[in-house]
Each structure stands twice: as structure tokens, then as C-alpha cells.
Amino acid sequence: MSTKPLSRRTFVTGTTIAGLAAVAGRGVLASPAWAAGVAKVGETAPAFTAPATSGQNMGLADQRGKLVVLEWTNHECPYVRKHYESGNMQALQKEITAQGVVWLTLISSSPGTQGYVTAKQADELTLSRKASPTAVLLDPSGAVGKAYGATNTPHMYIIDKAGLLLYAGAIDDRPTTRRADVQGAHNYVRAAFEDIAAGRAVQTPVTRAYGCTVKYA
Amino acid sequence: MTLRGTLAVLASVIAVVAGPQPSSAAAEPPRVRVELVSDVGAIAPGQRFWVALHQRIERGWHTYWVNPGDSGEPPRIEWKLPAEFTVGEITWPFPERIRVGPAMTYGYSNEVVLPIPITAPPGLKPGTRIALRGQASWLVCEKICIPEEAPIALTLPVTATAPPVEPRGASMIAAARQRVPTPSPWPARFAATADDVTFTVNASGLTAERIAEIWFFPSRWGAIDLAASQRARVDTDAIRLDVARGPLREAVNAPIDGVLVVSERLEGAIAHHAFTVTAQPSSTGGSSATSPLLRAIALALAGGLVLNLMPCVLPVLSVKTLGLVQHSGQRRSVLRAHGLAYAAGVLVSFAIVAGALIALRAGGEQLGWGFQLQSPAFVILLAWLFFAVALGFSGAIVVSGRFAGAGHALAARSGYVGSFAAGALATVAATPCTAPFMGAAVGFAVTQPWPTALVVFEALGLGLAVPYLLLSFVPAWSRFLPKPGPWMERLKQFLAFPLYASSAWLVWVVSQQAGPHGVGAALAGLVLIAFAAWLHQALGGVRAIWRRSATWAVAALLPLLIVGLVALGPLGAPASAPEAAGGGAVGWEPFSPERLEALRASGKPVFVNFTAAWCVTCLVNERVALRSPAVAEALARKGVVALKADWTNRDAAIGRVLGSLGRSGVPLYVLYPPGSGAGAPPTLLPQILTEGAVIDALDKI
Questions:
Q1: pLDDT tens figures, B406-462
Q2: B225 CA to chain A: closest CA distance, Å?
Q3: Which letter does DSSP use for residue B374 in this model?
Q4: How confident is the model over B506-543, as pLDDT tens digits?
């Protein structure tokens, strides 16, 4: 048997997922408080501010009048790696930001979990991966991620100039880690921008995001 | 390519096929170890068999179900099978819920066996060996997720004979298939509001106290909020499940597929029952909601018509029709009024029966048509009524003039009250009978709101009333009735016999419900009724007041019999309806350890159905497997004696037998092959039966 070890991490804690499931099964966590304010497509996107890697706080309110893309990421996640190592994500960032769209990459991994980075490490990643987001925002508390109901990395959102959420979901329709699957995949984000450019409603506004779970605290 | 280059390529190919590459030895070991197993030790040409991907998952990690939920990816297999082999889809055992932060995922931990059917081509040469190969890939997650893959392979010889069972693989696959959902026997629908989806699964007969949990796993992402709580309510007629709507708003415009897992407390353990469900949207169900009602009304009318021909009703109706012959000289309007009075009697009685049924069900009782028959006291009373009416027909009771008898007096009394009473009597007489078509109509009615239920019941009554009504309204038809004459007395006497037979049948029912004490009471009552009838005749010369008093004094002993029995106990115990959990085409004999022993000693094959009216699985099994004509046919073909051990009321003898078979509860299905003693060990069938499984087991003996 051969495996593709894509992570250096092994057991993080002794807490088993089965244990979590057992707790969930009793309904203790059945209705988490965060669920109340989760973003819904067609409604106003939740306001937020978070520190960018530059140290400056950035908020959604600052971007009024511009289209905004939110990209949740975790550089160690095999699904994120599929899109960065194939160059797919960088190509999309270039293409979209060239249209004057604000691209915010968010990292909601809590300290000590997979994908957590300092501002400096985040900038190094942007450089080494030749990525071109407008900014990378750090959300180690998970507050922004939970407000948007971000469950996966990558998890993509598009917000219109008036602050309405236009799209939430996957980057494309191939929920795999195989780099080769980028070819021929239907990219939902690109398709949404084509709809917006044509003055149409977004044809596929909600999809199931795929990837690794966001490593909330 | 140089020789060195060729060797290098070869070496890497071998390394991939052989497993861990030396270069990756330093890397972490896989979180999931896989193997391919099969349920046969050899392949028979043209036959279907099962293989399975067995995943052993590192503690704390998990792999995914076909719908992984908010995150994750199901395992995949790319097969490289020899020519003409066909492989089916993975069959998925129902998953666990695995919550990860705000997300809900569905998957497996520790270990999972994913069965896959493969069909071999017919042209295989016996003696050759077949290699089944594939590449399995899967995502395994703990806090982090790792895609893993590995080659899987299994080599099996081809056999010309019946393929041998591979014990380890077969038991793994059988256990996994027990957890694969079976089609739901209950229709399901859903209604969506802005925030919630409410599923209604028409599962009747579930006992709320025994249900530990109900969870719906949708097959696709989007329709419901996977991480939200699911609030289940178990009523007598349905399961209702409320859950928050999911992000994909348009998902509620189409049917929602998924797996409903009902977890039931059985004897200290939890048994999970998984069903595949397709819930239809209620919004488009508007038209289909009326058509079942129309269908139920049509069935009820047909059922009511056929009821006229049932042995319990036919005599009553016939005598009423004789009355019509007698009155044929009267004016049409009078005949019509009699017909209407009779129909009113039927409809009012049906309304009373239906009203009682609906009210009791609303009070939480689990009742169906003929619910009164679950009470042995009522059955005894009915047996007595039939007997008394039959005595009247036989001429043993002559009250006044030509027609007589307790109920018969009602049926034959002239005047409209008499016709009304005849209708009521026909209804009471009809209660122990079910006609074809009725079951579906009544089954539908009892799950509906009361006005709908009432409409269906009244349709049934109308069906019962229609033949007489028509005869009284269309004089042209009465012309086909023969002329009055002495033959009427003969016919009436003859018609007593179906009533005697009905009475005898009811006493048999009592024997099921209340045992020898009940039968004793019922028979003693019959003797008293006969005595009262004789007394009434014998005192023909004395004054009417004495004669009546004496008759009633004897008749008054009847209720005492019932009261005495209830006080003594045997009738007080809530006996279950004998057909509630068995029924169908198979003649199920009641189980007793002695009966089993006697049958075994005589070398007969025996099938024992350990069941209980309160056990959901038992009822589902009976519905999907045991009641099927094919199973009945197989039982008959093999000469198997079918015994039903009803554990509805705890029974120490049944408990001991269960214990000796290593079980503590029901359901349990045991097949004893022909022959006796240790040479013929019993086979325990799976707890979740299919028609095929029962027939397969029967075919093996």
C-alpha cells in the first residue's frame, strides 16, 4: 500500500472524532449559537474587520462599491494545495483582480492547528506561491469564518457592490485532491463573474463547498 | 530506452504494485489499511457474488459515506477487472455523524466494510484463476485530512460447481449488508417553510417510548442544514421530523432522497434500522393528496359491497331481503322508506364505530378496523349475538308471529325502526369481517384527519347499504326476486348455519386471546342462551310477564360470566390481536416449547418467528418478507411448520428459548432443518429479513 503523505502532522490531540460525534449525537451541540447569524446568499453579507498581514485592519465596509471575493484557505490542506500547486488559484486571482475586484484571502485556522500562520509566514506563502490576492486577512479566532459559515478550505464567496452575498460554495465542481482534475472542471467563481459581467443573476449561487474542514479553535 | 532505464521503470512499476515504496518508508504509515475480501472462495461462471473494500481506520480518524456532508469525499475504486466482468456500485452501510466545528460530516470510524456486487461472465474456464484488481482511493480525516490510495487485488479460482463460501469474507459482508439501508416500507413527504423542512414518514405502529433516536441522512448536500438538530416526533400514525433548511434553496423543489435511521431500544441494546427514503414535496402533492382519498373512497365502496357477501353479513341481509319479498305487494314509497331506513341504520352505526375508532386513536390507542375484536369480552358478546340470531333463524326462538330471535327480531320487525335496526345489525355483524379492498381503504383512513377518515368509513357503510337500497328503490329488480312461499322458511333455516359458523369462529378467536377460561365462558354463555330460548318456548302457556322475567333472569347470567372472568384475570390482561404480528398467507401456529420439541422429535423442519406487536423491526420484517406469497410458497414446498412466538406480553417460556439461542430479545428467526437431535443445528436468520434471505435459507434445508 502506498500513500501520499501530504502533511507532516500526526495526532494533534487525544480527542477522537468519534468522541465528538458521540457528544454531537446527544444533541448537546445540536444548535450552535453561531448558526444564528450565518451568511445567506441573496442577503446582506455579514460585516467584519480583520487584521491584514500588513498589520492594518480591513473591513467589508471599506470595500463598498467594489465586488469582493472571499477565499478561505489553509496552505497545508491537500485540496488547497491542488489549486495552488496547479496554478489554478493564482490564475483566477490574476484574472479577477484585473477586473478591479477585491480579493481577500482569509485564514481561520486557530493557533496550533493545520494552516495557522503568522503575518510574516502568510506573506512568504503569497510570495513563494506567486499568489496575487488584494490582501490576506488573519482570523485565528474564527469569528469571520463562523459569521460566513465557512466550513471548508477552499471556500469561496462573492459579495456585490451593494454588499449582498451573490455566491457561496466551492471553487469548482471536482471535489478531489487530484491536480489533473483542475483541467476541464467547471469553475463556479469564474462562471459567477461571467454572469455578473453579462448583467445576469448568478446562475449557480450556492454549491457544496469541498475541501478540508476549517480548523476552528 | 537503455536497459538501465527499462529496469528502473520496471522496478518502479513493481514497487507501486507491491505496496510501500522503500523511499516512502520514512513517511508516515497510512491511516487506513485496506483489503479486498469476497464472500466466495471461488468464482462460478455467470454468477453474481460479493466483494468488499475493508477499511481499517486508525483510531480517531474517519473516512466518508457516499454523501460526506459539509466536507470530505467518499472512497472510490477504479476497477481493472478481466474482460466481461461487470461490477456494481458500492453499497453503503449507513454512516455515523461526525461533527467538525460548525460542519457536519457523515462517515465511518474504526472499521468499515463496503460491499460491491460483481457478476462473472458465463464463459469462464473452470480451473483457471481470476485476478480482480483495482485502485482504491479515499480521504481520511481527523483534525486534518489526508488523501490516501492503494491497489487492491484478490485472486480466485474458477469452479464448475457451487462456489464454496469464504467464511471470513462472507461474515464481514453479511454484517455490513445488515447496515445497508433497505427500501422504506412507508411513504414519505416533506413540507418546506422559509426556515424549516418537515418530513412526514407514514410509519404506523411505532412505539414512541422505544425509539431512542431518529436521524435523516440526506443523499445530497443542500436541502437541509446538516449540522442543525433534528426534532423527531413519533405519533401513532407517522414520524415527523423538523430540521432547518439548508443553503441550497431550490433543493426543496424536488424530492429529497436519503436514509432514515430509526434507533430502537431492544432489551437494553440499541438496534438501528436504516431505510432508504424518497420524500416527495407536499406542495406538488396537492393533486396527489386528493387522488389517494378518491381511491380510498372507491376502495371503501367496493369493500362495503363485497361485505354483503361475507358469511357474517349475508344471512342478516338475506333475511332482510326476504322481508322485501314479503312486502313486495306494498306501495313503492313504503318500500323505499324501508330501504332508506336500513341505509340510515348502516350509516349511523358506521359513524358510531368510526367515531369511536377516531376518538380512541386520538387518545393514543393503536387501533385499526375491527379494534373491538382486540377485546375478548367484545368477541364473546359477538359470538353470543350470532348464536342467538342463528337460533332465531333455526326456529328455536319464536317471539311473535313468524319471525323471531333476539337480533332477528330487530331485523325482521316491521316498521321503519326495524329496518333501521337491521342496518345497525348488519354493521355489527360486519365488524369481524374484512372484505377485499377494505384493508387499503381503512389503512388510509386511520392515518388521515377525522373528517377524511369519516368520509372513507361512510363510503364503506354506503357500499354495505347499496344492494338493499337498490332493491327497494328499483322495483324492476325486485321482480327477479322469487315469489314468497314455504321456501323462505327453509332458506332462513339454512342461513342459520353461516351464523353458527361465525359464532364458532369467534369462539376460536377467544381461544387465542383469552385461553381456555375465555372459551369456557363463551361456551357457557352459548348454553345459557340455548337454555333461555328453550325456557321462553316452554313457558309458552304462562303469563307473558313471568315468561319474560324468567328468560331475562337466565340472560342476566351472561354479563355475570364476563364480569367473573374479568375479575379472575384472564380477560383483564390486554391480549394482543392474534393477527397483529404474524398474519398473511402463512398459517402461523402459536409457539410453545413443547410444540417445538414435538415437531423436532418427529423430524419436521420448523421456522420460528419470535416477534412482538411492539417491535418495529418485527412488523417491518413481517411486512416485507414473511407475509409474501413467495415465502408462504417456499414454506409449503419444504413442508416447514411455521410457529409464531408472540412476546408482546412477556412470556417466561419464550424468554428461556430465546436465552438458549443466545438472544435476549426479539426479533429472532430460527429455522430448524428436517431431522432431529444434534445432527440438525438450527439456522438463525438475520434480524433484518428480506424475502430473498428467507427463501435462500429455506432452499438450503
A1: 344 444 455 778 788 888 888 887 766 655 566 667 767 766 677 888 888 899 889
A2: 10
A3: G
A4: 887 777 667 788 888 889 889 988 888 888 777 766 66
Hey, where are the domains in chain A? 35-213
Please list, residue by residue across B154-187, b when 16 or more beta carbons sit within 10 angstroms of its beta carbon and e when fewer do: bebebbeeebeebeebbebbeebbebbbbebebb
| A-interface mutation test, from B99, B217, B231, most A Cβ less than 10 A away | B99
Q: Do A152 and B70 touch (CB under 8 A)?
A: yes
Q: Which residues of A are less than 8 Å from B16 in CB distance?
A: 2
Specify the CATH number for B29-171; select among 1.10.10.10, 3.40.47.10, 2.40.128.10, 2.60.40.1250.
2.60.40.1250
And the C-alpha cell for B480?
A: 327477479
Q: What is the ipTM of this complex?
A: 0.73
358478546: which residue's cell?
A: B381
What is B589-700's CATH superfamily? Answer: Glutaredoxin (3.40.30.10)
B102 and A76 in contact by Cβ < 8 A? no
Task: Write out chain A residues lying below 8 Å of B247, CB-based.
Answer: 40-41, 149, 168, 206
φ, ψ for residue B655, nearest 5 deg: -55, -40
Across the interface, do A21 and B222 touch by the CB < 8 Å criterion?
no
Which residues of chain B neighbour A30 with C-beta distances below 8 Å? 228-229
CATH 3.30.310 is the classification of domain B183-283: no
Contact A77 B249 (CB under 8 A): no
Contact state of A35 with B225 under an 8 Å Cβ cutoff: yes
> Where do the structural domains in chain B lie, given as residue ranges?
29-171, 183-283, 289-568, 589-700
Helix (H, G, I), strand (E, B) or coil at B429: helix
- Regarding beta strands B188-192 and B103-109, do their DSSP bridges make them parallel or antiparallel, or are they unpaired? unpaired
Name the grid cell of B267. Answer: 432489551
What percent of chain B shows pLDDT beyond 70? 76
The residues, ordered by sequence, that sit 6+ positions from B449 with a Cβ below 8 Å of its Cβ are none
**What are the CA-CA distances from residue B509 to residues A70, B53, B502, B574, B586 (Å)?**
73, 52, 10, 14, 17
Residue numbers of chain A with a pLDDT score lower than 50:
1-37
pLDDT tier, B377 (very low <50, low <70, confident <90, very high otherwise): confident
Confidence of residue B394 (pLDDT cuts 50, 70, 90): confident
- Residue (of B96, B58, B43, B74) closest to A175 by Cα position: B74
Cis peptide before B255 (omega within 30 of 0): no
Residues 6+ apart with CB under 8 A from A57: A49, A50, A51
One of 3.40.1190.20, 3.40.30.10, 2.40.40.20, 3.30.390.50 is the CATH number of A35-213, namely: 3.40.30.10
Same topology for domains B29-171 and B183-283, yes or no? yes
A177 vs B contacts (CB less than 8 Å): 73, 139, 147
A212–B101 CB contact, under 8 Å: no
Q: Write the pLDDT tens digit of every residue in A168-194.
A: 999 999 998 889 999 999 999 999 999
B70 and A151 within 8 Å at the Cβ level: the answer is yes
Torsions phi, psi of B192, nearest 5? -115, 135
Specify whether the CB–CB gap between A139 and A153 falls below 8 A. no
Mean pLDDT, residues B646-668 taken together:
67
- Read off the pLDDT of residues B150-165 as tens digits, 9 standing for 90 and up: 999 999 999 998 899 9
The partner residue sitting opposite B96, judged by closest CB among A14, A21, A209, is A21
Number of residues assigned to chain A: 217
Cβ(B528)–Cβ(B558) under 8 Å?
yes
Task: Compute the count of residue pairs across chains A and B with CB atoms less than 8 Å apart.
Answer: 158
- Say yes or no for a CB contact (<8 Å) between B146 and A6: yes
- Round to whole Å and give the CA distance between B220 and B217: 9
